[in-house]
TrEMBL record:
InterPro entries: HET (IPR010730). It comes from Aulographum hederae CBS 113979. Pfam families: HET (PF06985). It comes from the Eukaryota. This is HET-domain-containing protein. Residues 4-112 form the Heterokaryon incompatibility domain.
Length: 273
């Protein structure tokens, strides 16, 4: 399989271009670069500079008005991102028109604390992005002032000589690394940490509450996690998987039931164990 890159980006409402049943044959023949939004164009340019021939973009590579294709592809997200050579993350962009690239100061790149800057990164607040970053072997973040790097070996940015150890939203790779040698109890602990972080992130459609985590669930199953039940694992039901709590003033029961009431996925808002 030839190397390919993936683009991780915020949809930000209306998509200027996407693949549908009506235009898929036309898109297979080619898409005019000028018709792509700025984020997509700059991602294509960067991928070409790296000598990588293929770029996977969800809104173009999934047939958006075909529910069967969407369901199949959404459950394969971990495979798509996990097998990529690199993920380009438009971390600063709130929508596809904002672009990837930004101008840094020509004289110097000043140090700033990543732990206090994450609220300015629209992409890192999106629930779908969690599994993309978790599975990707390498992620290059395009932020307002600099590039940030994330991989199994650690995190780094242009403003510091060493790694970025105190950035809570840039250390997600730690869990993926430990999965390779974790036993059943350790895997369950890692899963609960994921749920805690995931449940605090934003979804455009609350109906995606379980769908946006389905790829990671398949990944955990491939490592022996067992039977998956609406966000929890059957093997650990008596060991605390049902002992999740919510912050009442920030969480509420869903008006439309998407999961059993014993599952954390039945709640709108963040949970913890």
């Amino acid at each position: 399989l030839e190397e390919y890159a993936c683009l991780s980006h915020c949809w930000g409402g209306l998509q200027p271009i996407q693949t549908t049943r009506g235009n898929i044959e036309s898109h297979k023949r080619g898409i005019d670069l000028a018709k792509l939004p700025l984020t997509f164009r700059e991602a294509v340019l960067f991928t070409r500079r790296l000598g990588i021939r293929y770029l996977w973009i969800d809104s173009l590579c999934i047939i958006q008005d075909n529910i069967l294709d969407w369901q199949e592809q959404s459950s394969n997200m971990c495979s798509v991102y996990g097998n990529s050579h690199l993920v380009l993350a438009a971390t600063k962009a709130a929508n596809p028109m904002d672009g990837c690239f930004a101008k840094s100061q020509s004289e110097y790149v000043g140090w700033h604390s990543p732990s206090s800057a994450h609220d300015n990164f629209p992409l890192l607040q999106r629930a779908w992005v969690l599994q993309e970053r978790y599975m990707a072997p390498r992620v290059l973040h395009f932020t307002q002032e600099e590039l940030m790097w994330e991989c199994m070996a650690g995190q780094s940015c242009e403003c510091t000589a060493g790694g970025v150890s105190n950035f809570p939203l840039l250390n997600i790779k730690t869990g993926a690394y430990h999965m390779t040698s974790a036993d059943s109890s350790e895997m369950n602990m890692l899963w609960r940490l994921l749920v805690k972080r995931y449940s605090s992130l934003d979804l455009s459609f609350e109906s995606d509450r379980l769908a946006a985590l389905s790829g990671l669930a398949k990944y955990y199953q491939s490592h022996g996690a067992g039977e998956y039940l609406a966000g929890v694992w059957k093997e650990h039901l008596r060991e605390g998987d049902l002992a999740w709590t919510v912050r009442p003033h920030k969480s509420k029961r869903r008006s439309v039931q998407l999961a059993p009431t014993w599952s954390w996925a039945s709640i709108e808002g963040s949970v913890s164990y």
